[in-house]
Amino acid sequence: MTFQDQARAAKVSATLLRRLDRAAKDEALRVMADRLRSATGEVLEANRADLDRGRAAGMAEGLQDRLALSEERVESMAAGLESLAGLADPVGEVVRGWTTPQGVRIEQVRVPIGVIGIIYEARPNVTADAAGICLKSGNASLLRGSSSALESNRAVIGALRAGLADAGLPVDAVNLVEGGHDITDEMMHARGLVDLLIPRGGAGLINAVVTGSSVPVIETGTGNCHLVVDADADLAMAEKIILNAKTQRPSVCNALETVLVHSEIAAEAVPRLVGALTGAGVRVHGDERSKALDDRVVPAGEHEYEAEYLSLDLAMRVVDDLDAAIAHIRQFGSGHSETIVTDSLAAARTFQDSVDAAAVLVNCSSRFVDGSEFGFGAEIGISTQKTHARGPMGLAEMTSTTYRLNGSGQTRLG
Amino acid sequence: MTFQDQARAAKVSATLLRRLDRAAKDEALRVMADRLRSATGEVLEANRADLDRGRAAGMAEGLQDRLALSEERVESMAAGLESLAGLADPVGEVVRGWTTPQGVRIEQVRVPIGVIGIIYEARPNVTADAAGICLKSGNASLLRGSSSALESNRAVIGALRAGLADAGLPVDAVNLVEGGHDITDEMMHARGLVDLLIPRGGAGLINAVVTGSSVPVIETGTGNCHLVVDADADLAMAEKIILNAKTQRPSVCNALETVLVHSEIAAEAVPRLVGALTGAGVRVHGDERSKALDDRVVPAGEHEYEAEYLSLDLAMRVVDDLDAAIAHIRQFGSGHSETIVTDSLAAARTFQDSVDAAAVLVNCSSRFVDGSEFGFGAEIGISTQKTHARGPMGLAEMTSTTYRLNGSGQTRLG
């Protein structure tokens, strides 16, 4: 089957999906979960084949870890599908509504987008997550996983499609897209067949899709996240938030990468924070001013302010004032999550009004910027672009809207 | 000044615009309106130069009409800016908000997008409209008008920028982008400088921007709009709505292009509707079945179902049933506005649940699908894409959102 045939079949299934009520979708998700559980043996066998192939080709250990499945991981994928069944249906939600002077009733209602393509890297658990989120929001999915996870993805998608068939839904609602780089290129130019593309993975993948696609794309985020220690900061609070945001899970996009310290509080703050950070195993890369205040600081070059370390490394800079901190964030920030720690109401307001990012935080950890912490129940990624969706994307962000106009013969007068 | 310099200046001004309160923006709009009124003489002189150049180059009369300004048109541009000052500010609107179990308060708030590029064809009145809508929503604008309107646009933008200066705002909030096709190409690839591009004009322009741009684009619409006369239709109502939707203003995207008649009612409906339409000067291009019912019908080829006539022409087809009508719309519709006339609640519901378009109407005219009829007070176009905004776009659609998190030291636990 060519990609075009596959996409056309997905589009046909999407016309059926958009009319399903919640009960039908939830039942399908539960049957898919059952089928995935029953297929645990095949999935793990396929995963071993991927891992063997990867090791033979010299795959890095970190990638092997991300690729590796276990009984627990398959169970967690199945449980994820079941938990989607417990969430409210975004389709049909009336966003707003009003009646015109002539008596035409207008409602703006959430509807499925149609066919969503997801291009992602090694983790096979994304396969079940993405398929489930798309199905729950009434969308057909074209899942373009990494070639290194091909056997695993085939086994997972085989189980999910068997579940769809058991539930009486079209199997083409969920599709694995196989083939070389030319197929990714076809996906990016399948206007009229693919309604939206979401790349999930490293900056290279995301950039290639965002710049190369003529299908609308949602850019999911690299996170170069900053925290400003204001002159009026409670340093105990700053220390606690910085440690949490940097060390709780350093490899994710909402982890902290740079601390900007207001010069008025630097003499006290820098040694205290550097001490706490180095004590927690964090290497602090600082500018001249912070290094002068604590010699555990290693020198930072300007390129380090651009780095998304995703490791136990942190950049530190002493800035003259709040405006300088905001200017630094404007220059180096990736528009993900930016934080200030301050007791000053004026500083908090200036910061939240001035900084242009998906999330702007006062006195709490950037680790909260996440679909599960937001209570969305499911997350397809965190958007760092400004159109369609910005910040954590749950089920509602996987919908479009339509205007329904209901009249009784009205015509336009002027 | 190169385009890059101009875009950078716009971006700097956008950081100031995002912090303006409503009063400052409204005052600027009023001063800009005054300056435009005072410049009426210069604007009309520049417009005459454009028209002379156009006539010398053999510009079509229709284009000349769209290019031509008059005292009344300039006054209406100025009044448009003043009416924007009377609209609520979309920036700062809290879309939703909640408190997490740990007590972090989360608000999703509307913020400006940043720098918006608008690429449009001959009408110079779009220049003032677009500049005003962008300013009111806190965005800087890069306005890429047609070369045929260059002198007019220079004069209009000169007046608007003088108004910005008088009001103490950065003049780079509103910019005319001049130069050849290579500049349009630069706009389409100015990632990091231009946040959003909106093409307004014919299908060729829109398609070129949508497929060629790596900056996010909102596709504004070509409208191949259908109306279904259901078996249970009130024919008097159908006739009235069809005449309004086809003839009130045939050249716009929400005008009706195709009527699909349910076979059960065709013998009565076709002659009645064809009679009314031909009586109103409309040429009806029909399939064999409708032609057999009324010989005033001229034969339609399949390509005619794809046509956006934008004239006093209409395609007509007799369909077996509602499903066939929906299938026709799925095949030929442009996703703009689709209507059913019916007294059947079941048919109305099936139609609104099945048809995938920006607006789906029951028993009223597609001419209502318009920002002013929706009560938006201003409209930048009608989106026919499914992401970001769909349907008429007012001030709210010219914003992004940000999440503001306010805590008191909370850190993430798990």
TrEMBL record, chains A, B:
<dbReference type="GO" id="GO:0005737">
    <property type="term" value="C:cytoplasm"/>
</dbReference>
<keyword id="KW-0521">NADP</keyword>
<dbReference type="InterPro" id="IPR020593">
    <property type="entry name" value="G-glutamylP_reductase_CS"/>
</dbReference>
<dbReference type="InterPro" id="IPR016163">
    <property type="entry name" value="Ald_DH_C"/>
</dbReference>
<comment type="function">
    <text>Catalyzes the NADPH-dependent reduction of L-glutamate 5-phosphate into L-glutamate 5-semialdehyde and phosphate. The product spontaneously undergoes cyclization to form 1-pyrroline-5-carboxylate.</text>
</comment>
<dbReference type="InterPro" id="IPR015590">
    <property type="entry name" value="Aldehyde_DH_dom"/>
</dbReference>
<dbReference type="InterPro" id="IPR016162">
    <property type="entry name" value="Ald_DH_N"/>
</dbReference>
<dbReference type="Pfam" id="PF00171">
    <property type="entry name" value="Aldedh"/>
</dbReference>
<comment type="similarity">
    <text>Belongs to the gamma-glutamyl phosphate reductase family.</text>
</comment>
<protein>
    <recommendedName>
        <fullName>Gamma-glutamyl phosphate reductase</fullName>
        <ecNumber>1.2.1.41</ecNumber>
    </recommendedName>
</protein>
<dbReference type="InterPro" id="IPR000965">
    <property type="entry name" value="GPR_dom"/>
</dbReference>
<feature type="domain" description="Aldehyde dehydrogenase">
    <location>
        <begin position="66"/>
        <end position="278"/>
    </location>
</feature>
<keyword id="KW-0641">Proline biosynthesis</keyword>
<dbReference type="InterPro" id="IPR016161">
    <property type="entry name" value="Ald_DH/histidinol_DH"/>
</dbReference>
<dbReference type="GO" id="GO:0050661">
    <property type="term" value="F:NADP binding"/>
</dbReference>
<keyword id="KW-0560">Oxidoreductase</keyword>
<dbReference type="GO" id="GO:0004350">
    <property type="term" value="F:glutamate-5-semialdehyde dehydrogenase activity"/>
</dbReference>
<comment type="pathway">
    <text>Amino-acid biosynthesis; L-proline biosynthesis; L-glutamate 5-semialdehyde from L-glutamate: step 2/2.</text>
</comment>
<dbReference type="InterPro" id="IPR012134">
    <property type="entry name" value="Glu-5-SA_DH"/>
</dbReference>
<keyword id="KW-0028">Amino-acid biosynthesis</keyword>
<dbReference type="GO" id="GO:0055129">
    <property type="term" value="P:L-proline biosynthetic process"/>
</dbReference>
<keyword id="KW-0963">Cytoplasm</keyword>
